[in-house]
Queue: 2 jobs
Job 1
Amino acid sequence: MSRHASGLMAWLIQRASAVYLALLLVYLLIHFTFYAPTDHAALVAWTQHPLINGALLLGIPLLLAHAWVGIRDVLIDYIHSLALRLSLLILCAFLLITTGLWLFKAIITAEFQP
Amino acid sequence: MNISVYRYNPDTNTAPLMQNYDINIVQGMMLRDALLAIKQQDESFSFRHSCGEGVCGSDGVNVNGRNVLACITPIADLSLPMTVRPLPGRPVIRDLIVDMTQFYEQYRAIKPYLIRHDPLPEQEILQTPAQREHLDGLYECILCGCCSTACPSFWWNPEKFHGPAALLQAWRFLADSRDQASDERLDALAGPYKLFRCHSIMNCVEVCPKALNPTRAIGHIKALMLDKGL
């Protein structure tokens, strides 16, 4: 097996995505603490800003990749039955993909609202 | 002083039990001395020990939830009530004696010896003082097993994860200027199990009786892998 395989790449993806997500989370915490949108229209207007829109759209795949590596690590550590582990991995993958699509839809829909 | 000790003899006990012993404490007494005093009271009590000065690594035990080398752990430093158990996660052979076979298999798997592709010179392979310095904090490991048996990742996957002791030694040979098998060693550590089960929990660093830092060594291996792999 090449050393590019799941061990090193998974570790790298988890750490690189963690840096971006940490910065995004700090920004979101500051924004929603001090400049929280007053209504739905203000929230939509905020997500329509190109920088915010881009940051959120980039954040979704990174969040999913980060969560996937984390969940995979937990399942590799604790679930030793291959059949159960595979079933749980497929279930988690399904949940992550559907969550990701839902998030994408929410942001894209907000972007095209008048 | 009263010490509660884990007792299990697979020939006579159906389940492990904790047994209490009263021993007289003298100044400067180490935990190993206390275990020897128990052995004098009860000859059936068993534990491993040899050099008595923290060199052989035989008498690793778990005291009050923490892995220590009994021979260099002063009784006065331990809180009461005192409970002595075998190293966690390993199959118990008898009382405080555990089966370390998997631990040694993981050590053997990292090929703990210098590998040269060039023909060996007639005399020593010299190192500069700076090259030699890279081995400090690595060569001192005595393979007592306190670190690996304190590592949750090793508890869950002892047959696949090398564990902190073996990985510290893996870095010891990767960091050695005389070794010529870096690529093979890194290839052998690839995949999600052997190296990457380490989640930097750092129990190994916490308990190492030689104050070594396997987590840092594992970090160096990952960095070298990244450097050479990407």
Note: The mean pLDDT of chain B is 96.
Job 2
Amino acid sequence: MLLDALRCRRFRNLESVDIEPHRRFNILHGANGQGKTNLLEAIYLLSAVHSFRNHTNAQMVQFGRDSATLEARVDRGGHERIVRIEISSGGKQVYLNNSIVRQLSDFFGTVNVVMFGPQDLSILKGSPSERREFVDDAIFNAQPAYATEQQHYDEVLKQRNALLKEPDPDRALLDVYGEQLVQYGADIIMRRLDFIEHFSPVLDRTFRRIFDPDFSASVRYDMKWSSKLQGIERYQEVSVSRAEIEQDLESGLEATSGTERERGYTLIGPHRDDLDARLDGRPVGTFGSQGQNRAFILAMKIAVITYLEERYHFAPILLLDDVSSELDRQRNRQLFDFLRQRDDGQVFITTTHRDFIHLDEDLKVFEVDDGKVIDA
Amino acid sequence: MKSDDPITNLVSAFARLPGIGERTASRLAFYVLNEPDSLADDIAEALMAVKDQVNLCERCCNLTQAETCSICRAPDRDHSTICVVANAQDLRAIENTGEFDGAYHVLHGVISPLEGVGPDDIHMSELLERLQSADANGGTEVQEVIVATSPSVDGEATSLYLSKAIKPLDIRISRIASGVPIGSELEYTDKSTLSRALSERREL
Ligand SMILES: [Zn+2]
């Protein structure tokens, strides 16, 4: 996966940017507030069609302008494509090779990125939604259909919650949404279990190699509501069938039917699940030191890349947003050791200090200053 | 909110139509303004007529100018088979395939608690009446119901709800096959896909 050329017009403070990135390392250097992260945001948008900073469409367009344009030429296995996104306050329009994309599900998977920024450093201590997002982003990178499944689940969940808030919900309709929740929910759980089963060994290998050979790192899928299969332990150790998960979801809904009526929302399902991250068998978010937490997250990000390379045979574009300043000297070194050792893989790194970046070949440096990007 | 400026009012009226943004609305408004009066007259007349003269078929709820629609009145159609659709556009899409010679029932919506649309807000009770008494179906007893709501989440929920309501009546009920891409609207589905979805329907 290579980004050969990138063009930004009127995107945030980037009035007019045209760059031809290096196939390996691209260092975006400049003081804070000059537009380095905006450039990463632009690349991320060309992949996910939404902002990792939760910006609205209007916020993404340069102040006082009607619309912004992002365009990239990407190469995947010798296959070249032109991706373009037009953003205005009214919405976004995606183009692939100059044709309008009507269904985003047809577009997802065209550009693959893995993002790592300061906001990721707290995911093990943060809310379960941040960890679900880590899992979902990784799955979505290789299996674009997952986005549609998530959207369906989300729609059912919203309808069901709206119904639960009614004073006297139609019983039969509640059953209908229950059945749909089980169906679409099982889709999501199956994908997540499959990912975690393959990902956890890669993570362990990565952690031992980069940080400490004497520690074991693992992740498990945590479904606290799951009564019959007793959550994580059994789901991890035996392979479960889709039918078992459906049954489990069904009985979970039945068991919580009184409470959910009282509270007015659905209490169980993949939207409540979590990723249980453990270092030597102990939850790293609660028991690990800050250093261990950061090492663990760094290992998770690196392992995602390795996982995608090994299982799906492609290297996603890695976006590193000013993480070096947040990592201690040793871990920062370890990160760059890993990056240099890979045979391939394009990386974009923002930094305020060139010294943080332990790279001296296969690279281009771009100076970012007041919304202008200059090939230095 | 109404403004004192008739142009502003026309622009905001156009902008309320689906698929028309502020810019297109203002282009349309100025176009109408600059054309001879006859254009405005014709549009105004056609708009009023469509609300005045079109009503719902008392049997199938299709749009019609008479009491019952031309499909319900057609003697050569199979009135024992009813295809349930969400709206009149979907009915037209299925008619255009030329593959279906039964009758229809138009719900005029799908169930969506989020938008405050419950089972009682779509024309389901009329359908159940037709299924329960031949009189309500022009004298023909209904043998089969084909649910052709779109394969979106809401379309599926409506279909499931219908099948639960119809099951006890001992009438065969089937769902159009899933050849139609999930989440797409029937209206925009091409003819051959739609014909296949109809012929390969599965029993619920
Ligand atoms: Zn009729």
Note: Residues 4 and 73 of chain A are 5 Å apart (CA to CA).
